[in-house]
Specification:
By secondary structure, this protein is α+β, with helices and mostly antiparallel strands. It contains 31 helices and 15 strands.
Length: about 850
């Protein structure tokens, strides 16, 4: 910068030297590019990490972390580009400063004076205009000034020459600072020394808080900004905050205001598991603004420097929010609620800042299987199956938080205290929802095939079950049957007879190391959960129903985790875990629990499948591929959770299909996966009211499946055919729609919706005899629209013999389910 000690004479100002341009010197350019690369590369990696919801606790957490990474990434890009573009040009009659986005200039006759500033090791030249309305021009001296540069400023007033004298005079004239000038000067020097020591201590504290976080260190961090502000406020003018580089005779405590917020935010994010952290935002912002106002009162002109004020407000609000969250835990003296839970699984992130998690059963306010964050040392001492205690604290500021810790002996219930299989089996037999564990009510088993697995279970023939399904698993491992055949063999365990809960538990008790027994019980619980939840819309489903589903899903999860330990190729366990993870995290707000009765034109999810769930599902898929690279059923299940209706996209499905093409699947299986992609595309087109395109996509999906409908999940092909029929029905292409519905009921004769829709299309095509058959089947299954239509057929004698009494009965059934036309028909029929 210009020489501030020996002013040059204006006689040295030679206009022939100008214009002259100065760019950032190579040394500074390398330093800046290196700095911004160090800032930008981790920010980019963090953005990629967080944007895929790695280890995130919800969408808000993901958004905040991603936004922080985006902010630092943009800052690094801005800094790097500025290093390449910034330049200063001196004209004989003016100066021009160009940075990345703007160009500013000032004529010599406009300049009142100039001064030098040193901010965090960088020297700035500040030009002040005569006109107060003209903004000051601040130039970073990142180049080496030469003689023409010094000569240009030589005859301009230098405010720096007088500033130290004015600052020293201010101190010397303040008698409150000391009795003699020497005493006052000594106190000022001592204040600067104390500030330097405090700043060095702050840097040391940063390291300690990061690598050795202890309550007393965090308490120091909480106190430091207040100490700095108090010193500036009551320090007789010897200290300053928010005025770095302006007054060299004062002790600068700015670092003590800024750094604690960063440190506390880091520790709050890593150390405190707050259940209601958003409660800290309002008070934190208020405290941050109050502290910013206090800083402004201690610094002349602070409020006029908007960027500086905003920056301080952000840092101090962050400090306050993080301080409230940490203080809520540090100063909490409440008696915690203790929830003993079993560890279902454990996992952790990678890298130096790894976060360690236990997946545990529902506890307290968490009604689903969930992850809790624990200390690394605690994580290393525990394994899945161990019991820990989640202690939920009320919080010093009424913000609940929790910690996972060892249990005291008296805190562990007897049901969890024993790790034996017998205890586990008995606990599984205890009813958690409205189901009976009694052995009665098994039904007339004589009507069931003696070889049926459900029948064997009902009659307690566990040795036959064990032998059959162990042999089946071995045949799969010997590559004598494929994964699809293995899955089909377990469909008998979809039976949700309440009495079977006891039978499953007895099977496990009889064969405590049976992979098949644990898997069968898990499948049973999953279907019990779906039945408990029901198949109505989310807003028509009670919290109790959701809780009932999640309670049995928790049992299923425990069984599946146990099954993973009992076989080296547990392919079906991974398939069920993928499905369970989807329903546990998204089905609580979905509109149906099975494909059977879920017409995709009717259901809209209120809550998407979370990113955490997708990550978990992908992990299960990868594990299944590691033990069975050619497996189809896990890929098929994973493909279904990538559907748009679960919060993902057709493009994600296409990418996964491309990945699956190299897995060695048969052409038929690949076509089924492609059909799922086409189905999702058709669904999206229907949502956009592009009915023509949707009809073509549905037709393409059906054609891809062809005669291989048995390769799709249970009843999924029937649902695809129904969806195709529905869209062609909207297009008034009733012959095509009828064909799709006919194939749908052939694939799944138990679908009342498909029979009813088939009847509608048969009426439109004049096939009244066929419509009578279809309406009757749907009506007998309880479909309300079909009940009304079948009532009309009976009343009018259309294609059947007239029967008014029977017609009234069907009108009554339909009217009771809210069908307005049936209510009108019922009134009319009773008047006759």
């Amino acid at each position: 910068m210009p020489n501030t000690q020996i002013p040059h004479s204006s006689e040295n100002f030679d206009t022939s030297h100008y214009p002259k341009t100065y760019i950032i010197s190579p040394g500074w350019k390398i330093a800046m590019l290196t700095l911004y690369a160090v800032l930008g590369i981790p920010s980019l990696l963090g953005l990629l990490y967080f944007s895929t919801a790695q280890e995130m606790h919800g969408a808000l957490h993901q958004f905040i972390c991603s936004a922080i990474c985006v902010g630092f990434l943009l800052l690094s890009i801005y800094g790097a580009l500025s290093a390449l573009r910034t330049r200063v040009t001196l004209q004989a009659d003016g100066i021009e400063y160009r940075d990345l986005f703007s160009t500013r200039s000032m004529h010599r006759h406009q300049i009142k004076n100039w001064r030098g500033l040193s901010v965090h090791g960088v020297t700035y030249l500040e030009l002040v205009a005569f006109d107060p309305a003209v903004k000051k021009l601040k130039i970073a001296i990142l180049f080496k000034p030469d003689t023409p540069f010094d000569d240009w400023f030589a005859d301009l007033p230098n405010a720096d020459r007088d500033a130290p004298r004015f600052a020293e005079q201010e101190i010397q004239n303040n008698l409150a600072l000391g009795l003699t000038p020497a005493e006052r000067a000594g106190k000022a020097a001592r204040a600067r020394k104390i500030a330097r020591i405090a700043n060095l201590a702050m840097l040391a504290l940063c390291v300690l808080v990061i690598v050795y976080p202890r309550p007393y260190l965090l308490s120091i961090c909480l106190a430091l900004p207040w100490i700095a502000i108090a010193a500036a406020w009551k320090g007789n003018g010897f200290y300053t905050v928010g005025d770095s580089g302006k007054s060299t005779l004062k002790g600068d405590l700015t670092l003590l205001c800024i750094m604690p917020g960063i440190l506390l935010a880091l520790r709050a994010l890593l150390d405190v598991n707050t259940l209601a952290w958003t409660q800290a935002i309002g008070p934190g912002v208020i405290v941050g603004l109050l502290m910013t106002a206090m800083v402004g009162r201690t610094t002349d002109g602070f409020s006029k420097r908007s960027p500086m004020a905003i920056l301080y407000a952000i840092f101090l609000a962050t400090y306050a929010i993080a301080g409230i969250i940490l203080g809520n835990a540090l100063f909490d003296r409440s008696v915690p609620s203790v929830y003993p839970v079993k560890i279902l699984a454990r996992h952790h992130t990678t890298g130096k800042g790894a976060t360690f998690y236990f997946s545990v059963a529902p506890w307290g306010p968490r009604i689903a299987i969930n992850d809790i964050v624990v200390r690394p040392a605690f994580y290393r001492t525990k394994e899945p199956g161990d019991v820990i205690c989640v202690r939920q604290h009320g919080g010093a500021f009424r913000m609940p938080w929790y910690a996972g810790e060892d249990c005291k002996p008296a805190e562990i219930p007897a049901a969890l205290a024993s790790g034996s299989t017998a205890t586990k089996s008995q606990s599984h037999a205890e009813p958690q929802i409205a189901v009976s564990a009694a052995a009665s009510g098994l039904g007339d088993v004589s009507k069931t095939d003696a070889n049926d697995a459900s029948q064997l279970l009902k009659t307690g023939r566990y040795e036959v079950l064990e032998s059959r399904f162990s042999a089946l698993q071995q045949r799969y491992k010997d590559h004598k049957i494929d994964d699809l055949a293995l899955l089909l063999a377990y469909r008998d365990f979809y039976d949700t007879d309440p009495a079977l809960e006891l039978r499953h538990a007895e099977w496990i008790k009889a064969y405590p190391h049976s992979y098949a027994a644990y898997l069968a019980e898990a499948i049973y619980f999953i279907h019990i959960g779906r039945e408990a939840r029901g198949n109505k819309y989310a807003d028509e489903t009670s919290d109790q129903q959701f809780a009932a589903m999640e309670a049995v899903n928790s049992k299923a999860f425990i069984d599946l985790q146990e099954s993973l330990k009992l076989d080296d190729r547990p392919i079906l366990s991974y398939v069920q875990l993928i499905d369970l993870d989807r329903h546990e995290n998204a089905d609580s707000s979905a509109n149906a629990t099975s494909y059977l009765d879920r017409l995709s034109a009717s259901f809209f999810h209120k809550k998407n499948l979370s990113a955490e769930s997708l990550n978990a599902a992908r992990d299960y898929l990868d594990r299944s591929i590691s033990i069975a690279p050619e497996n189809f059923i896990a890929r098929r299940k994973y493909m279904t959770i990538l559907e748009t209706r679960w919060g993902h996209s057709t493009s994600e499905m296409k990418a996964f299909f491309k990945e699956s093409r190299s897995a060695g699947l048969t052409p038929a299986k690949l076509r089924v996966l492609a059909a799922l992609v086409a189905w999702d595309q058709a669904w999206n087109e229907e949502r956009r009211d592009d009915i023509q395109a949707s009809g073509k996509s549905y037709a393409a999906a059906v054609a891809l499946v062809g005669d291989d409908g048995d390769l799709m999940e249970q009843n999924m092909f029937a649902l695809l055919l129904s969806d195709a029929g529905h869209i062609h029905e909207e297009l008034r292409q009733y012959d095509l729609a009828k064909g799709y519905y006919q194939k749908s009921v052939e694939s799944n004769p138990g679908s009342a919706n498909a029979w009813s829709n088939l009847g509608i299309c048969q009426v439109h095509t004049g096939d009244m005899e066929g419509a009578a058959v279809s309406y009757r089947k749907a009506a007998e299954m309880g479909e309300p629209i079909a009940q009304n239509e079948w009532g009309k057929f009976l009343w009018n004698g259309t294609a059947v013999k007239a029967d008014h009494a029977a017609a009234i009965g069907y009108f009554e059934k339909s009217a009771s389910q809210g069908i307005a036309d049936a209510q009108n028909n019922l009134r009319f029929a009773k008047q006759k």
